[in-house]
What we know:
Blueprint: E1 6-7, H1 21-30, E2 35-38, H2 47-52, E3 59-70, E4 73-80, H3 87-113, H4 120-127, H5 134-143, H6 174-183, E5 187-190, H7 204-213, E6 217-221, H8 227-240, E7 243-246, H9 266-273
Helix pairs in contact: 4-5
Amino acid sequence: MSARRIDLHSHSTASDGTDPPAEVMRRARAAGLDVIALTDHDTLAGHDEARRALPPGLALVPGMELSCRLDGHSVHLLAYHVDPAHAGLAEQLHAITTDRLRRARDMVGKLRELGVDITWEQVAAIAGDGVVARPHIARAMVAAGAIARPDQAFTPEWIGPGGRAYVSRYALDPEDAVRLVSSAGGVSVLAHPGVPQGGWKIGDEAVARLAAAGLAGLEVAHPDHDDAERIRLAALAATLGLVSSGGSDDHGSLTGHRLGCETIAPGEYERLVSRAAGLS
Ligand SMILES: [Zn+2]
Ligand SMILES: [Zn+2]
């Protein structure tokens, strides 16, 4: 029997992916995965549909990707197996999603001032039932002819960090977020720590502080990490006693349907889930 294939990072239309949760599950199995984590931004909303649609042979890890900010920079924290009924967590998710709406409206307003002919109604329609996010605005900008491809929106010219129409938003302190996930019975993994956010990368000391707060793992295998970054992060994980995790960060057609292109080793996965209180 071949080793289990486990991808711990994916997005659906519950946040900014292009495929509904059921379709993500279908594609996960088609990609040869045995375990898939659905990790939409700041929401657990896709899990019920994903569970109902699980193909035989595929297991779902309920997850999400929490928006955090450290020293003015965006940091993403993957959380798995949290208790959806945990009051403190639900309160924070509500605060984040409410502010996402304000922020998206403000960005649309700024873009209009810059002469981009998009409307809030159009962006909301693209987001549908999902959490409104910048990729939805980017798609509206393409429809308006302001840019040719969605990725061109994520520049200083438009809605990249610090860009002319960029608006920052409510986010959690990562140490608080790690503690919150633990108190909700879950485990946390720092997402893509080797991908620069506007030229900035989280430092080793900051990662060590998160580890001391209860962080369980580092996402070592990510499509945007080169070999040198993987080696550096795997060594850091080993030093701090953290799990070396991995996932595709698939956003459907936005990222070219890459489910299963990155995985976590089965042994590391066992170590990770053994730390989730909700699963004992
Ligand atoms: Zn992320
Ligand atoms: Zn992600």
